[in-house]
Amino acid sequence: STLYRIDNWGAPYFAVNDSGNITVRPHGSSTLSHQEIDLLKVVKKASDPKSVGGLGLQMPLIVRFPDVLKNRLESLQSAFVSAIQTQGYESRYQGVYPVKCNQDRFVVEDIVKFGTPFRFGLEAGSKPELLLAMSCLCKGNPEALLICNGFKDAEYISLALLARKFQFNTVIVLEQEEEVKLVIDISKKLSVRPVIGLRAKLRTKHSGHFGSTSGEKGKFGLTTNHILRVVKDLHDSDMLDCLQLLHFHIGSQIPSTALLQDGVSEAAQIYSELTRLGADMKVIDIGGGLGIDYDGSKSGNSDLSVSYSLEEYASAVVNAIQVVCDRKSVKHPIICSESGRAIVSHHSVLIFEAMSTTDTAPSMNQINLPFIELSEDARSDYWNMSDAVMRHDNETCLFYADQLKQRCVEQFKEGSLGIEQLAAVDGLFDLVTKTIVETEPVRTYLVNLSIFTSIPDFWSIGQIFPIVPIHRLDQKPEVKAILSDLTCDSDGKIDKFIGGEANLPLHKPGNGQYYLGMFLGGAYQEALGGVHNLFGSPSVVTVLQSDGPHSFAITHAMSGPSCADVLRVMQHEPKLMFENLKHRAEEFCGIDAGSCLASTVARSFQNMPYLEPRSSCSLTAMNNGG
Ligand code: PLP
Where's the active site on this chain (predicted)? Predict the structure, then answer.
């Protein structure tokens, strides 16, 4: 566990048990040891049709732990409650979950359920997100906020106003100046008194990747001039009392509390000014940005890590608002945050098989170098290289090995060297680098996964997540590896890991399956993933503890989309496709044989696009070309 820094990024939810398997503590470190859930057992039960109660789901697999969600929500709430009590703050914290982080129905429903005792609400950034938020909040606390963010048209605003009519505690947050006129007009038409917020464009800018849209020139929100014009419009329409909330968002993954305090103080000044201008201000909504320490370094100096705890975050926010409001004699506002990443990141683990590995360096007796066909220059490189080996002159040896290889590649391209000879030279080169320079070759493990579907942030913005074998952690890994996915795309590989490593220590796959887990990916990855190469989303199971030591129950299981499902996404019609293929089979193979062969095709439509489990790990590594 030290090798993979599990204690650093995984605590209090993930640890390693005596069998060398990852265990999950869904209630955090307060979980009693006999209540820990062995992740390997969950995976076996979900995927193995032969195990008792096994579900036979195809990999890859997302394992959700609703209790982790509950613990995250409660920890966030109690961090604010304690900061508020300690600092004598005279209002409360009332958060919302931004559904964009993970819109999965069960995730959102669970958050609403677990947050009901403390009025936890939802944030929507589009019309479908608003529809799902309204529907999920039907079972929530009536005081829970329903924050409507994002760019809005008349339809979005009408929907949000209807939500107010339906007694949801809806706030329409103005993102652009033009929206205010629509809100004034439509609310009059619908006879609803809206509650309005506005999103301020702060000067405070965060320098990390996620801060690129913040600051004065940022994409979102209203400038001071916009704000003053909105105030005037509302005042002229006798609706200034409707303006009750100030929102800002300086970017996800805020690296330090110093930057956070800077932004919150600036926003608190705007809040106080709005009060002075006559708005009936009640809530300050500090947006998202509460970060995750993906590498467990607590360094806070990159998008990978933050330097504060939940408690320090809450304390910095409460303090910054209190100082400004006290100075301006403004009543302390309700503090709302839209923390997404911090709530959902830990709750799920993506499990996938590492299916194969290549041993790049053959042994000397496997190398049969036919000198006959080598050019004079190449032969002299070979002798110079051998000479350097005798003298233990590694640098010279590598130089001639490299030169020999280059020359042979040229000869091959010209057509004067056969593939057997080139293979022999490649083997010789690998052997030299391995044995003489003593660098362990990095092996490529093929993983039964699409990075574009399941870890899109790695491909798009270089976000690194902890990836760890979920078993055999009591054995020393022997291999350095990079991971290559199933897509025909050269970007479909993972060659950066936490701790700045360019490879991942892994075990040699034995006879059984070798499972890796990607952790802390519960936010954004499912929402952003695409269907590159028509690989669809993974299967999903939801896991709760059950009675008895080390027991768990799979309370919900869902196979990932089949080939037919993903084909439908791109407007193909699997039924019609199958009929066409069946006719063709019957035409060319005869009616009986054809219809029998067509049933094999039918099965492919029904199965998931990923590789079926293999018992052996003998595939050679893929060279992705594309
Ligand atoms: N609120 C708004 C307006 C956002 O744009 C985002 C995400 O970027 C969030 C909340 C969630 O941020 P985070 O996941 O960092 O908590």
Answer: 488
* Adjacency order of strands within the sheet including 145-148: 96-98, 121-124, 145-148, 169-174, 196-199, 243-247, 283-285, 334-336
pTM: 0.89
pLDDT of residue 621: 34
Q: Residues 471-515: pLDDT tens digits?
A: 999 999 999 999 999 999 989 999 999 988 999 999 998 888 999
Count the Cβ atoms, other than its own, within 10 Å of residue 401: 25
* Smallest CA separation from ligand 1 atom 12, residue: 288
The sign of the CA dihedral 208, 214, 219, 220 is positive
Measured CA to CA, the distance from residue 304 to residue 493 in angstroms comes to: 19
What is the arrangement of strands in the sheet containing 22-24, beginning at the earlier edge strand? 14-16, 22-24, 37-38
93: helix, coil or strand?
A: strand
Q: How far is the CA of 338 from the centre of ligand 1 (A)?
A: 6
pLDDT at 490: 87
Phi, psi of 117 (to 5 degrees): -60, -25
β-pairing, 348-357 with 61-64?
Answer: antiparallel
Measured distance CA(333)–CA(272) in Å, rounded: 10
Q: Is the peptide bond before 12 cis (omega within 30 degrees of 0)?
A: yes
Write out pLDDT tens, residues 226-258.
999 999 999 999 999 999 999 999 999 999 999
Segment 103-113 shows an average pLDDT of: 97
* C-alpha of residue 621 to centroid of ligand 1, in Å: 39
Q: Which atom of ligand 1 is nearest to the CA of 524?
A: 14
Token pair 């652009």: residue = 176
Is residue 231 within 8 Å of 277, Cβ to Cβ? yes
The span from the CA of 526 to the CA of 538, in Å, is: 9
Q: Which of 96, 100, 220 to mutate for ligand 1's pocket (most ligand atoms within 8 Å of CB)?
A: 100
Query: What per-residue string of b and e applies to 344-367 under the rule 16 or more CB within 10 Å gives b?
Result: bbbbbbbbbbbbbbeebbbeeeeb
Residue 149 Cβ contacting ligand 1 at under 6 Å:
yes
In 485-588, DSSP assigns E strands to: 493-494, 504-506, 515-518, 539-545, 552-558
pLDDT for 620 equals 33
Catalytic member of 242, 408, 488, 617: 488
Collapsing DSSP states into helix, strand and coil, what is residue 484?
strand
- Give me ligand 1 centre to Cα 516, in Å: 29
Question: For the chain, how big is the Rg over CA atoms in Å?
Answer: 29
* pLDDT for 200 beyond 50: yes
Confirm or reject: Cβ of 282 under 6 Å from ligand 1. no
Q: Is 242 a catalytic residue?
A: no
Select from 130, 79, 90 the least CA-distant residue to 121: 130
